[in-house]
Amino acid sequence: MVVKQIENLLALLEYFAERKEPATLADVVRHFGWPRSSAHNILTTLVETGYLYEPRARGGFYPSSRWQHLSEAFTEAEPVPLALHNIITDLGQQTGETIWVSAPSGLYAVFLEVVESSAAVRYAAQLGNRVPIHITATGQTLLSQMPERDREVLLRKTEYGCWGPNAATSVEGVRQQMAEAAERGWYVSASNYSPDLGGVAVPIVLGERIFSVTVAGPLYRVQDKFEENARRIYEAIARELGPDHCARTLKGIKIPKWD
Predict the structure, then answer these.
(1) How many CA atoms lie within 13 A of 129 on its CB side?
(2) Contact 82, 197 (CB under 8 A)
(3) 249, 204, 245: which is closest to 84 by C-alpha?
(4) Comparing 150 with 127, which gets the higher pLDDT?
(5) What φ, ψ does residue 51 adopt, rounded to 5°?
């Protein structure tokens, strides 16, 4: 269930992030089509709690630095390891495609850090994006390193049959895809979630935390490079974390060997 007031607040923050300048009450009403009273209540609440301010008198509202302080506090408490940042930066330079680090969040995989492709046609990914954990390469990669009991609970809770044309439509279908991926050594999505988009993913386990690194892009550009990009992920992990890291930390997946 989506709480409308929270959804509106998040939409307002994204609006400011895209606009990059103050907005008046009239601007907000015009952009969203909200009732004037509702928009006024949201803006007033944020001003009174210190999350919005007026840079110039009657010049509109803009988010204050309080949001930045909150974000920094979150990051300091549970940061994305520097090694993962280095790995996806490396991969972005090598592949030219969009790369991200994700972690499990209930029935979804959430994007923790993204290096977006500079190509005009690309996989558009943003921090905080979520994709279903059971049908995507990103999600199945994370599931692969969970205890079997936890994995099965998630697979029975999720919904089937309402995603991309190549998505698994049953628990057994997911199990089959994951078994094939474990034997191959990397996880694949080809129009599983979004039509005409595809990618490959490999798990990374650091201590007790499970992550996934995914290389993704338009299917016509990446489908013939799935194995090549999987190899690049493994090689980037080896350069950053050591040549035996995957063999030491991953469970139930065949570590591929390339000549």
Answers:
(1) 16
(2) no
(3) 204
(4) 150
(5) -95, -15
Task: Report the CATH number at residue 14.
Answer: 1.10.10.10
pLDDT of residue 58: 73
Q: How many CA atoms lie within 13 A of 174 on its CB side?
A: 24
Same-domain status, 126 and 66: no
For 204, the token pair is 């990374």
Same structural domain, 199 and 151 = yes
Encoded tokens for 97: 């495609």
The C-alpha atoms of residue 147 and residue 144 are separated, in whole angstroms, by 8
CA 152 to chain centre: 22
Give DSSP secondary structure letters for 62-123: EE-THHHHHHHHHHHHSPPPHHHHHHHHHHHHHH-SEEEEEEEETTEEEEEEEE---SSS--
Contacts of 102 (CB under 8 A, 6+ apart): 109, 110, 111, 112, 131, 138, 139, 142, 211, 212, 214
* pLDDT tens string 3-39: 888 888 889 889 988 888 999 999 999 999 999 998 8
Which residue in the block uniquely carries the two structure tokens 């509202």? 61
